[in-house]
Amino acid sequence: MNPDLVRLGFTPHFAGHFAAHAAEHSASRLPARVVTEHRGAYRVHDGTNERWAVIAGRLRHEAESPLDMPAVGDWVVLDETPDTEGRAVIQAILQRRTAFVRRAAGLDKKPQVVAANVDRVFLVSSLNRDFSPRRLERYLALARESGAEPVILLSKADLADPGPAIEAASAIARGVPIHASSSQTGEGIEIVRDYLRDNRTGILLGSSGVGKSTLINHLLGETRFATSPIRDDDDTGRHTTVRRELVVLPTGGIVIDTPGMREIGLWEASAGLDEAFDDVAVLAASCRFSDCRHEKEPGCAVQKAITEGALSAERLASYKNLQKEGDRIEMASNPRARSEEMRKNRVQARALRSHLQKKRG
């Protein structure tokens, strides 16, 4: 394979899919990786050059949802024959290995691919008031669903003792590597580099001001991305990164910078939710009833664990809240699931009416 493409993360997986596509089309097509997106146009890298590209009309017409559109990190098939404005044309998206998908922010409830073909998801939380176990659980559910391996980075370790936060994170992220880092002292920088060896791709996710762009500057060895200090009054940061961008590191590996996310909405993350809350899932499997809601049902292993102090009530509440959120998304996007839920509601309503009539009679 072309070593310049390999440097960008081009693996035999993508080479095989590109070869199958190229065999059916002209020799003018070549693979490239999406670096960033800006107003419907894409900056792509073909291993030699970066250029602007747009989506072919056929690809846009056949897209059934935003999931079918290119995202940062995607490998795409370019037609080098330029359009009228001199841009290459994206004819296809090569099959993704992984995809970090969330519900789009604001009123738009459609899915959004934050990044594709990521090997490591670095969940960055600073050791100040930004640290939130509940938000971390949400990130973990989405990271697990993506297919990539999560790593927790507790930044600004020069400002606070990371011990308590590491203990809190360990309690909700069993088996997930947790590292303290500091862009001031350099702690943790080499650890991140090690995770990205062999041309692996990582993405940094976290709130504004946790130090994502500063960390990338350290990995690059230069100040390429603007940074701003956090506000003294509430420990929150100012937005400096305005769009997702893929960066090739001089020491090897690729990293994707992202803006701070105000909303981390789930999107079809049931499998990821069970992985992120594997302690709850294991307990639930021992409940007497398969449809146990883990409230007051007899034989509930989850409630027993809470009573015995083996599981916190807050952990269960977080799991149930995220589960309900996922169910709402499924019903909104799946007509069959919505119809089944309505049928269950009608059956329950009839049973309730029958019960009340018997009591009155």
TrEMBL record:
PROSITE patterns: ENGC_GTPASE, G_CP. Residues 105-264 form the CP-type G domain. GO terms for cellular component: cytoplasm. Binds 1 zinc ion per subunit. Its EC number is 3.6.1.-. Residues 116-262 form the EngC GTPase domain. It is found in: Cytoplasm. Keywords: Cytoplasm, GTP-binding, Hydrolase, Metal-binding, Nucleotide-binding, Ribosome biogenesis, RNA-binding, rRNA-binding, Zinc. The keyword Oxidoreductase does not apply. GTP binds at S155, K156, A157, D158, G206, S207, S208, G209, V210, G211, K212, S213, T214. Its cofactor is Zn(2+). Residues 352-361 have a biased composition (Basic residues). Zn(2+) binds at C287, C292, H294, C300. GO terms for biological process: ribosomal small subunit biogenesis. GO terms for molecular function: GTP binding; GTPase activity; metal ion binding; rRNA binding. Residues 326-361 are annotated as: Disordered. SUPFAM superfamilies: P-loop containing nucleoside triphosphate hydrolases. It comes from the Bacteria. Its main location: cytoplasm. NCBIfam families: ribosome small subunit-dependent GTPase A (TIGR00157). One of several proteins that assist in the late maturation steps of the functional core of the 30S ribosomal subunit. Helps release RbfA from mature subunits. May play a role in the assembly of ribosomal proteins into the subunit. Circularly permuted GTPase that catalyzes slow GTP hydrolysis, GTPase activity is stimulated by the 30S ribosomal subunit. Belongs to the TRAFAC class YlqF/YawG GTPase family. RsgA subfamily. Monomer. Associates with 30S ribosomal subunit, binds 16S rRNA. This is Small ribosomal subunit biogenesis GTPase RsgA. It comes from Polyangium jinanense. The gene is rsgA.
